[in-house]
TrEMBL record, chain A:
This is ABC-2 type transport system ATP-binding protein. GO terms for molecular function: ATP binding; ATP hydrolysis activity. The lineage of its organism: Bacteria, Bacillati, Bacillota, Bacilli, Bacillales. Transmembrane segments: none annotated. The keyword NADP does not apply. Pfam families: ABC_tran. It comes from the Bacteria. Residues 2-224 form the ABC transporter domain. Keywords: ATP-binding, Nucleotide-binding, Transport.
From TrEMBL, chain B:
One of its GO terms (molecular function) is DNA-binding transcription factor activity. Pfam families: GntR. The lineage of its organism: Bacteria, Bacillati, Bacillota, Bacilli, Bacillales. It comes from Virgibacillus chiguensis. This is DNA-binding transcriptional regulator YhcF, GntR family. SMART domains: HTH_GNTR.
Automatic annotation (TrEMBL), chain C:
It comes from the Bacteria. This is Uncharacterized protein. It comes from Virgibacillus chiguensis.
From TrEMBL, chain D:
This is ABC-2 family transporter protein. Coiled coil: none annotated. The keyword Membrane applies. Keywords: Membrane, Transmembrane, Transmembrane helix. The chain crosses the membrane at residues 16-37, 75-97, 118-150, 186-205, 214-236, 248-271.
């Protein structure tokens, strides 16, 4: 379980996070929703200790993040983070060199699943393929938690579909996933849990099925209520 | 398998209903293996946990059964299957009646229209089969 | 391993390159110029007391400094960084004092002129000043005095603000002497008088018990009222001598075209008297070596094949009979020489490749080894005669330039 | 430890092409230089002897013998060194900033490696440092080779032969990069390493606090330099106390180690707690 406890963050004078609290369980897909600039990426960065938080704490399976934790949690940012001049093979080798949890078999599987050519340079890949390669590098790790920042934004429909397929596949099974999006549409039925962010706080925190069952509302209905009401 | 999900209704409920329809329509035969939770999730592009929930619900209702580690199968229990069929018909009729009543059409007229429509649809189906 | 080839490549480049550079001398037969004393007469033991420092130029751009003491040689290029840092070739007298009085010597000027030593104490005096940016000259002159008693290691130190300081532009300590409980500091003071620079010696008398300045006296100046034009004033003392006598001796020479008279003048600190030593003019033209500890002057004069050393006792105010020694015919009165009195022996080293008074590009004659004569001043006899000859090819090809001669303290 | 070596190799690899270009340029320029310098000298000699009718000896007396020093003072020798120095100085900053400002923000990947982040610091510092030392070592070989080339080019009577270490003693420029004794070498480059650490820390301060950090960073460099220089100021310039040379050296080394260690410690803290992508 990833526990985010009351974290605050300022950028200059702007208070981006004003005490955000939520949890993300293993085996569930938690979705951080909010309009752009609400601090979704900042939360993911904070979980990965890529940006300092002013207050609050973040625990991963009850512990603070340590260097070794990176073998058990991976973050797939919205843009690929390997050097453009590397080929896919080289970037896979790079990951393999440092991560004990790198699963080469799964990497090869993903390679064929996404139909990527391993000899291609990262810089020469299309947007969709870059996103897939990015996903590949994260998913080929045998980690407990996967964080994804806007995995669907700015890519073509077919790639979106392929990526969406990942969420229902064994690649995600039993892992804890946190994804961020500013547009729920496509993935409404893929997620377990929604964390609605607005103005630096968590507005609402719910399981999608529970809301549908108890209130007969879609996620968008809830969002509309929360943001407009 | 393709379902157009309603966003406001729990997905698992819709999945269960879908299975019931399939059973009632004999698309799924008694004793037939159903897809694994992951397969179905992938096919329907929904969360595997939701499928899990749906399967659990179906199991409780006796629609499917699981033996040891084998894949789940559609029940062979005729009684249950009968209930499903009836439930489905009743659901459809309920819905129909509610709609029709609001238009305030006499029952006789409705029955006639239903008859004609039913026969014509069957005839159309027959023609299609010939092609 | 091949996965780390770039790291390997760069590290190997570094290790081999730097290794080659710093171990090169060990592998390469680099020949140091070697010299040896060739005895002609006497006993070479006396050479162990003297340290000859010379600069060797072998035609390349790199010179080498060498120190020769008896059989021992020290080459500047062969010193380690730490030896250089700690001044392995520096003034030995000061080094010795630093070892003995580490705390006392800390931060002190490394010049023997500032020190006085006897059985009772070690005394130090220095002039401190501050740069006055508004007037573009040194100001705030003060005398810094520090003594350490040898009996109980007790140190006293005090500052004395100097009187008449507006007159001076610069001050430098020439000599420090202690007589009884009084400390005498002789300074060379530079000043501007009517826009003309002038230099004079001043003697400051300090009461050590009360830590007070008793008097300030003007002693010798390069401008005297009865002298036409300027005169040159040279303090006669030995650099290695820490125990000065109660006399201050200077050689003066008038710089007027018509009047170039030389005078040997003395000031008796105890009697507070200044007078001119009465000597024949031709004696004054000779080189004077002052042995102030012994209160004796030695007049040195070379003639063809003969050297005469004439002692003059200050107390008796009279010339003794000259000591006469046969020397090489190659030496004449103009041959460049270095003198030093160590343990009552006069060391005379003649640089056979250069001459005094010759200016410009005199052709450098290589390969004439320096000649050394050691004369026992008490026994009035020659103790050693010999030359410093090049021993190997490197030395033969090099030019050997004597820099100075010190007492060897090691 | 393993990841430190991997990262170092990786960092080296990212600049290695440029590094080889620098090495190549230095070799080419300096070898051309020794040929150019000796040709020029021989031309002068020929003119003097055949046209102006000077004797060989007279020419040699007038012009002096040619030696490697003529070469080390030429632009051919100095320009590539200056280029390497400037390039590596710039790269000292670039080695960090490229990870943030590059096309794919690689710093995400680097900071998420399952290893102590200070290894990044060490890997980058080692990279800069080992490249500098590699170039210095290259210079040793080049001086040696230039000596051989000079011998080919110029008749030996016109030549003053010099070994590699003699060149370093005689040439001020060479002496700055290759001091006479190994102790000095260690001290020079130890100081160099300390300044690399100081600048790296300054970069990390800027990267952690951005605009505000820029001021802190400049302040940090100033303070670290002041602390390192404090002995020189306190004892030599202001004369507050005096030290014997050996004491000074030991204290200076201790201060250097303290400054370096605190720099590394501060960087460790910044990388684990304050760094931001």
């Amino acid at each position: 379980m990833i526990e985010v406890n009351n974290i605050t963050k300022k950028f200059g004078r702007k208070q981006v996070l004003k005490g955000v609290t939520f949890t993300a369980e293993k085996g569930e897909i938690t979705c951080l929703i909010g309009i752009n600039g609400v601090g979704k990426t900042t939360i993911l960065n904070a979980i990965m200790a890529l940006t300092p938080i002013k207050k609050g704490e973040i625990l991963i399976d009850g512990e603070k993040l340590k260097p070794k934790t990176f073998n058990h949690i991976t973050f797939i940012p919205d843009a690929i983070t390997v050097l453009p001049q590397m080929t896919i093979t080289e970037s896979m080798q790079f990951m393999k060199d440092y991560y004990t949890t790198w699963n080469e078999e799964r990497a090869q599987e993903l390679l064929s699943f996404f139909k990527l050519n391993p000899e291609d340079k990262i810089a020469s890949l299309s947007k969709g393929n870059t996103a897939k390669a990015n996903l590949l590098l994260g998913l080929a790790l045998d980690v407990d938690y996967i964080l994804m920042d806007e995995p669907f934004s700015g890519i073509d429909m077919f790639s979106r579909e392929q990526i969406a397929n990942v969420f229902t596949s064994h690649l995600i099974e039993d892992r804890g996933v946190i994804i961020t999006t500013h547009e729920i549409g496509d993935i409404e039925h893929l997620i377990d849990k929604v964390v609605l962010l607005d103005d630096g706080v968590v507005k609402k925190h719910f399981y999608t099925e529970e809301v549908r069952e108890a209130e007969g509302k879609s996620v968008i209905d809830v969002m509309r209520e929360e943001y407009q009401g | 398998m393709k379902i157009n999900f309603n966003r406001r209704e729990p997905v698992y409920v819709q999945v269960v209903r879908h299975f019931k329809q399939q059973i009632a329509m004999n698309m799924l035969e008694p004793g037939q293996e159903i897809p694994s939770r992951r397969e179905l999730a992938g096919e329907l592009k929904i969360n595997p946990n939701t499928v899990q929930r749906a399967y659990k619900e179906m199991e409780e209702q006796g629609l499917i059964y699981t033996e040891r580690n084998l894949p789940s199968k559609i029940t062979r229990n005729e009684q249950v299957l009968q209930v499903v069929r009836e439930e489905l018909i009743m659901d459809a009729v309920d819905q129909f009646v509610t709609t029709v009543q609001s238009v305030q059409v006499p029952l006789d007229e409705i029955v006639t229209i239903i008859k004609e429509k039913y026969e014509q649809t069957n005839a159309d189906k027959g023609e299609e089969d010939h092609d | 391993m091949e996965r780390y080839w770039k790291l390997m490549f760069t590290s190997c480049l570094f290790v081999f390159g730097i290794g080659f550079f710093y171990l090169h001398d060990t592998f390469a037969e680099k020949e140091l110029p070697e010299y040896t004393w060739e005895k002609q007469k006497g006993n070479e033991e006396v050479l162990e007391d003297v340290l000859v420092q010379a600069y060797i130029q072998d035609g390349s751009y790199i010179g080498e400094t060498i120190q020769i003491a008896g059989e021992k040689r020290k080459y500047l290029s062969q010193l380690s960084f730490l030896e250089r840092l700690t001044g392995a070739m520096d003034n030995l007298k000061i080094k010795q004092l630093q070892q003995k009085y580490r705390g006392f010597m800390r931060g002190k000027e490394e010049s023997t002129y500032n020190f006085y030593e006897d059985k009772r104490m070690l005394a130090y005096a220095n002039v401190s000043s501050e740069w006055d940016g508004s007037q573009f000259k040194q100001s705030n002159f003060a005398l810094e005095v520090e003594t350490v008693s040898k009996r109980d290691d007790e140190t006293t130190s005090f500052f004395i603000k100097l009187p008449n300081q507006d007159q001076y532009d610069y001050m430098d300590v020439g000599e420090v002497t202690v007589l009884g409980d009084k400390l005498y500091v002789l300074t060379q003071n530079d000043m501007l008088v009517d826009d003309e620079s002038q230099s004079e010696m001043r003697l400051y008398t300090i009461d050590l018990t009360n830590e007070k300045l008793i008097s300030e006296q003007r002693l010798f100046s390069d401008k005297e009222e009865n002298v036409k034009g300027d005169r040159e004033v040279t303090l006669l003392h030995d650099t290695d001598e820490l125990q000065a006598s109660s006399y201050i001796a200077v050689m003066t020479r008038n710089l007027d075209e018509d009047d170039q008279t030389k005078q040997l003048r003395l000031f008796d600190i105890e009697k507070q008297e200044e007078w001119s030593v009465d000597l024949p003019k031709k004696m004054l033209e000779q080189e004077v070596v002052a042995h102030m500890g012994d209160e004796t002057f030695y007049f040195i004069y070379e003639q063809k094949g003969k050297l005469s050393v004439t002692p003059y006792q200050i107390a008796e105010q009279q010339l003794d009979d000259p000591i006469e020694i046969p020397i090489s015919d190659a030496i004449d009165v103009n041959t460049m020489k270095y003198t030093k009195i160590i343990h009552d022996k006069l060391y005379l080293l003649y640089d056979m490749n250069s001459y005094m008074g010759r200016e410009g590009n005199a052709p450098q004659i290589k390969g004439n080894p320096p000649l050394m004569y050691v004369i026992d001043l008490k026994a009035k006899a020659l103790r050693y005669e010999g030359e410093l000859t090049p021993k190997n090819k490197a030395a033969k090809n090099a030019l050997f330039m004597i820099e100075s001669m010190y007492e060897n303290e090691q | 430890m393993k990841s430190y070596f991997r990262l170092t190799e990786f960092e080296l690899g990212r600049f290695f092409k440029f590094y080889l270009v620098l090495i190549g340029l230095t070799i080419v320029s300096q070898i051309i230089g020794v040929i150019a310098v000796s040709k020029e000298y021989m031309q002068e000699a020929n003119e003097a002897i055949y046209q102006d009718g000077l004797s060989k000896q007279a020419f040699m007396d007038q012009r002096g013998l040619i030696s490697l020093l003529d070469w080390t003072n030429s632009i051919w020798f100095l320009a590539p060194i200056a280029l390497c120095v400037v390039t590596l100085l710039i790269y000292m900053f670039f080695i960090w900033y490229r990870d943030w400002l590059g096309k794919n923000t690689f710093i995400y990947r680097l900071l998420m490696l399952p290893t102590q982040r200070i290894h990044l610091f060490f890997a980058k510092a080692t990279t800069i440092f080992i490249m500098v030392l590699g170039l210095v070592a290259l210079q040793v070989f080049l001086i040696y080779i230039a000596g051989i080339v000079l011998e080919w080019m110029v008749p030996n009577e016109f030549m003053q032969t010099m070994g590699v270490s003699e060149v370093s003693v005689a040439s001020q420029y060479v002496n700055t990069i290759l001091p006479a004794t190994f102790t000095e070498f260690v001290l020079y480059y130890g100081t160099g390493f300390m300044f690399v650490c100081i600048f790296f820390t300054a970069i990390l301060i800027e990267r952690s606090y951005r605009w505000k950090g820029l001021l802190f960073a400049i302040g940090y460099v100033a303070v670290a330099t002041a602390v390192f220089m404090s002995l020189i100021f306190l004892s030599m310039e202001w004369g507050l106390f005096s030290l014997y040379p050996l004491e000074w050296l030991i204290l200076q080394i201790i201060i250097g180690i303290i400054v370096t260690a605190s720099s590394i410690f501060l960087s460790y803290y910044l990388l684990t707690k304050k760094i931001t992508v």
